[in-house]
Specification:
Chain lengths: 149, 432
């Protein structure tokens, strides 16, 4: 199974600005507008990219869209699935019941409880765009887009 | 009789894993699947959600409606396989048909244990809860009898999900568990206590150290239960959830080796050539972290993975199974919990425990260490990023360099050595 897109994490270029988290939230908000998203929608959205920081080291990480994805194998409802066209690992929130098996098995810690605590929240690779929001808004190319993996 | 290139008996997570495993190697040759139940593949763990009214019948399915067709599977539903003749490579069904095979997967799952020594246990109103039909029958019973009081026998995961469902539909529920705490197979005492307190806050009566001695009938229907301690619990509905055992009926007399379950090697092959087994029916190699050997660990992620590895081997790609590990993620009436590996080790200096508990919040985190590695973990209340720990257990990672960070609130990949972090971040695929 090939991914059309793969986000490459380049730890040595990350400056820890967290713009990726902000733009992930905006991109997945209803309004799509930064001010509206932060005034009224922020509490309902978990960013699917997380910046981890310790001392001078930082990096941003989102779902790795693994080839044999543990979250798909562990999903008891079939909500976590591989998109046939793109190879992305996606969570169908209508079918997710929030059992958190995916959180239990993701070695990257890249699946989170949604704010409503009912559906798993994870990176969808911004499939309706050419470039994911986190990559497009990274000022230092610490997140870049790879081709077919 | 022509032999099917691939024959699968069973129609749940292991069967689906097998189909997807076969199709990752062989897109062409047909698969025949035999299923006792008349439904296309559904999610067994969802039956308690259906009973609770949290989901509808339409949401029970584990794969899309075109799953069989898209994967070249002829699914024969509602037929019971009754015997295997390994020497002739044939499976016989209850309706007198015979299916030849080149490669066979046995994925017949488990069946709920019913205690044999409880008078009245066959009373109308006594159920198990492992199948779609079970959930339907219980719903019909509640609707038809206006049942308001229920007894759940067994304080394990199925019992817990049964309690949760019955609470959700407004019943007064009593749970009885023979051991001295609930969820004793998956949790340690502190996590069991948190779970019990959560149930009790929701109005559930939890009675440990006893179980049902006799079911009482009135007018031919269940009316109550007498417990071993002499007390009685009025109830017009009871769910028996004291465990599941591998369903070995299909292999009886076949010569295929069994112990608790069907014994398989690290390719998921049974003692017979070309015959594989996976899922709750199999006794498969267990992960090193929990001491290896061959164990029955009836959980969905293991079933899927075993099926997948079996499928690839059946299709000719040599693939070895990394070993089953007990792990469960369960929401206890709003308290999310995760348990992985060895959570309640025997007393002794071999093991070291790191733990933090906040009863009020409530949250709890515990790690079991042995020889500089993590071998088990429990999370309750806060579960974000638990999978990083699961990965460390799986990979048998040496944690000596970051041991002191394991319990910290901001523990993450950044706490790990750069090399391990790179392995996670750049890994193309990671096995469960």
């Amino acid at each position: 199974m090939k991914s059309v897109k793969r986000i490459i994490v380049r730890e040595e270029y990350c400056i820890g600005c967290r713009l990726c988290e902000i733009h992930c939230i905006v991109r997945h908000s209803k309004s799509g507008k930064i001010i509206k998203a932060f005034r009224s929608e922020k509490d309902a959205i978990v960013p699917a990219v997380t910046v981890e920081q310790k001392g001078y080291t930082s990096f941003a990480l989102q779902c790795r869209h693994c080839d044999e994805a543990p979250c798909i194998e562990a999903c008891m409802t079939g909500a976590m699935r591989r998109d046939g066209k793109t190879g992305a690992v996606l969570c169908d929130r209508d079918r997710c019941v929030g059992c958190w098996m995916c959180i239990m098995v993701c070695p990257a810690g890249a699946v989170r409880q949604g704010k409503c605590r009912e559906a798993a929240s994870k990176c969808d690779l911004c499939l309706d765009r050419d470039v994911p929001a986190c990559v497009a808004n990274c000022p230092n190319e610490a997140l870049t887009l790879g081709g077919d993996a | 009789m022509s032999a099917a290139p691939y024959l699968i008996v069973g129609n749940s997570a292991a069967a689906v894993g097998c189909i997807e495993g076969i199709r990752s190697v062989d897109r062409e040759r047909p698969v025949i699947l035999l299923s006792r139940e008349p439904y296309r593949v559904y999610s067994r763990p969802l039956v308690s959600y259906l009973l609770a009214g949290k989901i509808t019948d339409e949401r029970m399915f584990y794969r899309p409606p075109d799953f069989y067709e898209r994967n070249g599977v002829e699914a024969i539903l509602g037929v019971t396989a009754v015997s295997i003749v390994p020497s002739r490579k044939v499976v016989e069904t209850a309706d007198g048909r015979a299916f030849g095979f080149e490669k066979l997967l046995i994925a017949t799952g488990g069946r709920p244990v019913i205690p044999g020594d409880v008078p009245g246990i066959d009373a109308p109103g006594v159920f198990t809860l492992t199948s779609w039909d079970d959930a339907r029958a219980i719903k019909a019973h509640i609707a038809g009898n206006g049942a308001r009081e229920a007894l759940v026998v067994g304080g394990g995961l199925i019992g817990l999900k049964a309690v949760e469902a019955l609470v959700a539909v407004g019943m007064k529920v009593t749970m009885v568990e023979l051991s001295d705490r609930i969820l004793s197979a998956t949790f340690d005492r502190a996590a069991s206590d948190l779970a019990r307190e959560t149930l009790e806050r929701a109005g559930v009566a939890v009675r440990c150290g006893t179980t049902v001695a006799r079911m009482e009938k009135r007018g031919g229907m269940l009316a109550g239960a007498e417990l071993r301690d002499g007390s009685s619990v009025p109830c017009s509905l009871a769910i028996i959830a004291i465990g599941v055992l591998p369903d070995l009926s299909l292999v009886e007399g076949s010569g295929i080796r069994t112990d608790r379950g069907i014994l398989v090697d690290d390719t998921l092959r049974t003692s017979a050539p070309d015959i594989y087994a996976a899922g709750d029916v199999a006794q498969a190699p267990a992960a090193e972290a929990i001491g290896g050997g061959r164990k029955c660990i009836p959980i969905l992620p293991n079933a899927y993975r075993q099926g997948f590895v079996a499928g690839q081997n059946m299709a000719g790609r040599k693939r070895t199974y990394r070993g089953a590990m007990p792990m469960n993620a369960v929401d206890v009436l709003g308290l999310p919990t995760i348990s992985v590996g060895l959570t309640d080790p025997p007393e002794g200096s071999e093991y070291e425990i790191l733990s933090a508990l906040d009863r009020e919040a409530p949250w709890y985190k515990k790690l079991v260490l042995k020889g500089g590695r993590i071998v088990g973990a429990v999370f309750a209340g806060r579960i974000d990023r638990a999978g990083i720990i699961t990965g460390l257990i799986r990979d048998r990672a040496d944690i000596s360099g970051f041991r002191d960070l394991l319990l910290s609130g901001d523990f993450g990949l950044i706490s790990l050595p750069a090399e391990y972090r790179k392995h996670i971040v750049s890994g193309a695929g990671i096995e469960v």
